[in-house]
């Protein structure tokens, strides 16, 4: 009873603080995003009408878009609508921003989930395998390969993959363009090269963190005791070593997943994939402030959610917190 009674208050105080901190982070991001768009030169009126437009035409458009109102009032008005799920209308097209994001977010989500489905098993599996063989030839090969992969920039990896598998072998499309009304799952081949490019960015660091955690956990007294008690090696690895070894790697893995799900600019731009990154680039060029603000805030929300999930996973993986005394 004392164990249970000692455990619940700690977590009941811990989680509200984490959630409150996440909300404060999102609020701070909203302020920074709004301030950054305000500080950028020009505005949507001048971008839409062009440099040859008269001052009267620009002033009339600013009045219609509400750009002549004080910035604090526009921020509060925008934040109030965002809380209700209304991101406003695009300055460039007039369409609701939610619709524009919905069209692209699904594509980025599919690409991010595909990359996550490749990244997590590879990082965990190879990290576990190398960590259990710390200092041996297999560990040196895996660790050296991870270092080499980390040294290659993302756009170089993507270009090499394109040159080999698209231009050279002709197995995969060089660009990931989608037809009207077509989704990425209608032609899964367009996902392969962007997925591999995204995985190459995050695999090395996550693999090395898992490997380091596993190598340290494998030398712990709890693992030695399990082996002395005759626990089979595969159960030692999966039940004792892997959960303890994953603890240090989970926060980095969460950040990597947030990066993959949020839309990766280089990979999507390199392969012409119609995701959030391409939408953000187009909106920035057009000074389409509502779209830029919404995409940036959505990316921050994904990152915060991933880190909250990591905060939950770490205590569950930590034997000390799972079995408090």
Automatic annotation (TrEMBL):
Gene3D superfamilies: MetI-like (1.10.3720.10)
CDD domains: TM_PBP2
Keyword list, A-Z: Cell membrane, Membrane, Transmembrane, Transmembrane helix, Transport
Domain of life according to the entry: Bacteria
Main location: membrane
Listed GO CC annotations: plasma membrane
InterPro entries with a match to the protein in the record: BPD_transp_1_N, MetI-like, MetI-like_sf
Transmembrane segments: 109-132, 144-169, 257-281, 293-317
Membrane topology label: Multi-pass membrane protein
GO BP annotations listed: transmembrane transport
Keyword set includes Transport: yes
Compartments reported by the entry: Cell membrane
Residue ranges annotated for the ABC transmembrane type-1 domain, each copy included: 105-310
Family affiliation: Belongs to the binding-protein-dependent transport system permease family.
Protein name: ABC transporter permease
Organism field: Streptomyces ferrugineus
């Amino acid at each position: 009873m004392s164990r249970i009674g000692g455990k619940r208050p700690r977590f009941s105080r811990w989680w509200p603080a984490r959630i409150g901190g996440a909300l404060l982070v999102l609020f701070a991001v909203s302020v920074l995003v709004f301030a950054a768009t305000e500080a950028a030169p020009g505005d949507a009126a001048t971008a839409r009408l062009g440099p040859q437009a008269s001052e009267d035409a620009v002033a009339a458009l600013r009045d219609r878009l509400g750009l002549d109102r004080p910035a604090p009032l526009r921020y509060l008005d925008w934040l109030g609508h965002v809380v209700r799920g209304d991101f406003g209308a695009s300055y460039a097209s007039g369409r609701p921003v939610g619709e524009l994001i919905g069209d692209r977010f699904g594509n980025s989500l599919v690409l991010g989930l595909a990359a996550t489905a490749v990244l997590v098993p590879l990082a965990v599996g190879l990290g576990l395998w190398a960590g259990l063989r710390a200092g041996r030839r297999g560990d040196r090969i895996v660790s050296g390969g991870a270092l080499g992969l980390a040294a290659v920039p993302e756009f170089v990896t993507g270009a090499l993959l394109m040159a080999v598998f698209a231009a050279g072998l002709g197995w995969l499309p060089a660009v990931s363009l989608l037809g009207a009304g077509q989704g990425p799952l209608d032609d899964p081949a367009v996902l392969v090269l962007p997925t591999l490019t995204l995985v190459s960015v995050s695999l090395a660091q996550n693999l090395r963190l898992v490997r380091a955690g596993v190598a340290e956990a494998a030398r712990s007294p709890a693992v030695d005791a399990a082996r002395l008690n005759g626990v089979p090696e595969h159960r030692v690895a999966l039940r004792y070593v892997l959960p303890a070894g994953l603890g240090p790697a989970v926060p980095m893995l969460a950040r990597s997943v947030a990066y993959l799900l949020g839309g990766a600019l280089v990979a999507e731009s390199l392969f012409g994939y119609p995701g959030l990154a391409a939408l953000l680039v187009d909106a920035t060029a057009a000074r389409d402030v509502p779209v830029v603000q919404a995409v940036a805030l959505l990316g921050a929300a994904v990152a915060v959610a991933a880190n909250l999930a990591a905060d939950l996973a770490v205590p569950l993986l930590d034997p000390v917190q799972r079995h408090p005394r």
